[in-house]
Amino acid sequence: MNRLNLILWVLLSFSLVSSKCQSTKNAASKQITETPKKKTSMDTTTVIKSEEEWKKVLSDEEYNVLREAGTERPFTGKYTDLKADGNYYCKACGNLLFTSETKYHSGCGWPAFYDNAGNTAVENRIDNSYGMSRVEVVCKKCKSHLGHVFEDGPRDKTGLRYCINSISLDFKEDSTNDAKVK
Ligand SMILES: [Zn+2]
Asked: How many CA atoms lie within 13 A of 40 on its CB side?
């Protein structure tokens, strides 16, 4: 039944289109150039996944921090004291977030950076949870939680301290000259 209906519909559509083309040839050719394009998102780089999909690609700990804005315990993250040269990418989507050039020892117990890797790296959000007013830092591409940014960073640099969970990051050492956003 359904298939028959579909065939009939297709035939009907074709006959309508072809008759229209014949009767208004000029109008039809003009129409082609004016056909509205499909609506596409301005930011094609945004990564959108359902929470179920994130759960499949992240470990429980990663999911808790990245998608539920959890915080790893201080001095436990694997990148807190790392000094190697390289880039730090988003653990969830691979977006370049920070570089070792702006990493410094803050003593806060989490990896600290005084700047991000450029205007496609991170996004700031006001976070009033736990009775505190803080600025949350999320990945600009996939909106996963990374940490917070404070204004007690090195004064001779930006004055900012990006306090980031190690578990939100994926470090890749500088072997090749990886394209830096800046
Ligand atoms: Zn991301």
From this structure: 8
Instruction: Give tens-digit pLDDT for 82-106.
Output: 999 999 999 999 999 999 999 999 9
Q: Ligand 1 centre from 29 Cα, in Å? A: 45
What gap in Å lies between CA 14 and CA 3, rounded to an integer?
17
Q: Which fold has domain 51-173?
A: 2.170.150
3-state SS assignment for residue 98: strand
Ligand 1 centroid to residue 66 C-alpha, Å: 9
**Distance of CA 19 from the midpoint of ligand 1 (Å):** 51
Catalytic residues, which ones?
Answer: 163
Tell me which long-range contacts 50-53 makes (C-beta under 8 A, separation of at least 24). none
Q: Is pTM beyond 0.85 here?
A: no
DSSP 108-145: SSS-EESS-SSTTTEEEEEE-GGG--EEEEEETTT--E
Classify the C-alpha dihedral 93-178-124-79 as positive or negative: positive
Tokens of 97: 């977030």
All structural domains of the chain with their residue ranges = 51-173
